[in-house]
TrEMBL record:
Protein's UniProt name: NADP-dependent 3-hydroxy acid dehydrogenase YdfG
InterPro entries to which the protein is assigned, alphabetical: NAD(P)-bd_dom_sf, Sc_DH/Rdtase_CS, SDR_fam
Family recorded in the similarity comment: Belongs to the short-chain dehydrogenases/reductases (SDR) family.
Reactions listed under catalytic activity: L-allo-threonine + NADP(+) = aminoacetone + CO2 + NADPH; 3-hydroxypropanoate + NADP(+) = 3-oxopropanoate + NADPH + H(+)
The enzyme's E.C. designation: 1.1.1.298, 1.1.1.381
Keywords, ordered alphabetically: Oxidoreductase
C-alpha cells in the first residue's frame, strides 16, 4: 500500500462509467485501489493513469463476475486482504425489453451479476470488515428500485433486492463499526444503455462525474440512502415512514375483514 494511504477500496465494474469515476475520485482522496472488471486492457490503462496522477497504489483483478470461478478469485481477495476496507459494489447490467420480450438467458445473466455476485461480494466484505471493526460497503442500486413501472421489471427487481439488502445490512453491521450506503442513481450517462440497446432522453441523463460526486458527498454526510437527483430528502424520509407504518399490519393471525373470509372460532 502507498505510504499515506486511506485504505484500499475494491471497485467492481471499474473499467468504465460509474466504476471508473469512483476509482478516480477515490484515488484523488488518497485511497489505494483494487479494480475489478472483465477488460484487462482498460483496467491496466486506468491503473497506470491513476498511479501516475495521484501516487496511490492501484492493483487490477480482471474477472467476469457472472462466472463462478472468476468471482471466487475476487471473493478470496476481498476476504483475505486485510488492507481492503471499502467495497464499491458497482458492476451491473441491463437488458432491453420487457420480461416477455427479453431472452431468458440474458435475464439470468443479469440476475447473476446484479443479485448473486453483488450479494456474495457484500457478504464477503461484511464478514471481513466486521471482524476488524471497520469498513464501508457502497452498493450501487437504482431509482428503479422505487419505480418498477418505469423499466424492465427484472432489472428493477434486481435493484430493489440490492436496496433491501443494504438497509438490512446497515442494521446488522452498524453496531460492529461497518458502514453501508445504497446509492440510487437515476439515468446516468454510461455505456450500460448502449449495451442494452435502450434509448434514454437527454434531459434526464446525469453526467457520471456529477453522480459520483453527489454519492460521495452523501457518504461524507453519513447517509444510508443517497439519491443524487432528489431535490428534497424529506420526500424519501416520508416514503420510508409510510412504509414502516405498514409494518404492524402486514402480518396477523387472521385475514383482514375486507376480504370477507369466514373464520371458524377456535374452541
Amino acid at each position: 500500500m502507498s505510504k499515506n494511504s486511506k485504505g484500499r477500496a475494491l471497485v467492481t465494474g471499474a473499467s468504465a462509467g460509474i466504476g471508473a469515476a469512483y476509482a478516480q475520485r477515490l484515488a484523488e482522496r488518497g485511497h489505494d485501489l483494487l479494480l475489478v472488471a472483465r477488460d484487462r486492457a482498460r483496467l491496466a490503462a486506468l491503473a497506470a493513469c491513476l498511479q501516475a496522477e495521484y501516487g496511490v497504489d492501484v492493483d487490477i483483478l480482471p474477472a467476469d463476475l457472472t462466472v463462478a470461478k472468476e468471482r471466487a478469485r475476487v471473493e478470496a481477495r476481498l476476504a483475505g486482504d486485510a488492507g481492503i476496507d471499502m467495497l464499491v459494489n458497482n458492476a451491473g447490467m441491463a437488458v432491453k425489453g420487457s420480461l416477455v420480450e427479453a431472452g431468458l438467458d440474458q435475464l439470468e445473466q443479469m440476475i447473476t451479476l446484479n443479485v448473486l455476485a453483488s450479494a456474495r461480494l457484500a457478504g464477503c466484505a461484511a464478514k471481513a470488515f466486521a471482524a476488524k471493526g471497520r469498513g464501508t460497503i457502497v452498493n450501487l442500486t437504482s431509482i428503479l428500485a422505487l419505480a418498477p413501472e418505469q423499466f424492465n421489471g427484472v432489472y428493477s427487481g434486481t435493484k430493489a433486492f440490492l436496496l433491501n439488502l443494504s438497509i438490512s445490512l446497515q442494521q446488522e453491521l452498524a453496531p460492529l463499526g461497518v458502514r453501508v450506503q445504497a446509492v440510487l442513481p437515476g439515468a446516468t450517462r454510461t455505456e450500460i444503455w448502449d449495451r442494452s440497446g435502450t434509448d434514454v432522453p437527454e434531459d434526464i441523463l446525469m453526467e457520471v462525474g456529477h453522480m459520483v460526486d453527489a454519492a460521495l458527498a452523501g457518504l461524507d454526510l453519513g447517509e444510508l440512502i443517497t439519491i443524487p437527483a432528489l431535490p428534497d430528502m424529506r420526500d424519501f424520509e416520508a416514503y420510508t415512514r409510510a412504509r414502516q407504518n405498514l409494518a404492524p399490519f402486514l402480518s396477523g393471525r387472521l385475514p383482514a375483514e375486507r376480504y370477507g373470509v369466514q373464520v371458524e372460532s377456535t374452541p
